[in-house]
C-alpha cells in the first residue's frame, strides 16, 4: 500500500486508504496510535477503554435480562 506525503500547514501528512480505514473501523475524528520503531511508523486504531464503551450504553441500546433456563446441578443463583 502506498500513499503520497503532502504538506498540511506546517506539518506533513498522508491520507489513510479507505480499505484500511473500513477494515479497522476508523472514521473521521477517530483516534489512532502512532508508534515509531527502528525508523518505521506503525499506525494502529486506538482501542476503546472499558469507560469509553460503558459511556456508549444508554436506554435506547441496553437489553433486558436473557434467560438461560433453570439451574442444573449445584449452582446457586
From TrEMBL:
<dbReference type="GO" id="GO:0003677">
    <property type="term" value="F:DNA binding"/>
</dbReference>
<dbReference type="InterPro" id="IPR037914">
    <property type="entry name" value="SpoVT-AbrB_sf"/>
</dbReference>
<dbReference type="GO" id="GO:0097351">
    <property type="term" value="F:toxin sequestering activity"/>
</dbReference>
<protein>
    <submittedName>
        <fullName>Transcriptional regulator/antitoxin, MazE</fullName>
    </submittedName>
</protein>
<feature type="domain" description="SpoVT-AbrB">
    <location>
        <begin position="6"/>
        <end position="51"/>
    </location>
</feature>
<dbReference type="Pfam" id="PF04014">
    <property type="entry name" value="MazE_antitoxin"/>
</dbReference>
<dbReference type="InterPro" id="IPR007159">
    <property type="entry name" value="SpoVT-AbrB_dom"/>
</dbReference>
<dbReference type="InterPro" id="IPR039052">
    <property type="entry name" value="Antitox_PemI-like"/>
</dbReference>
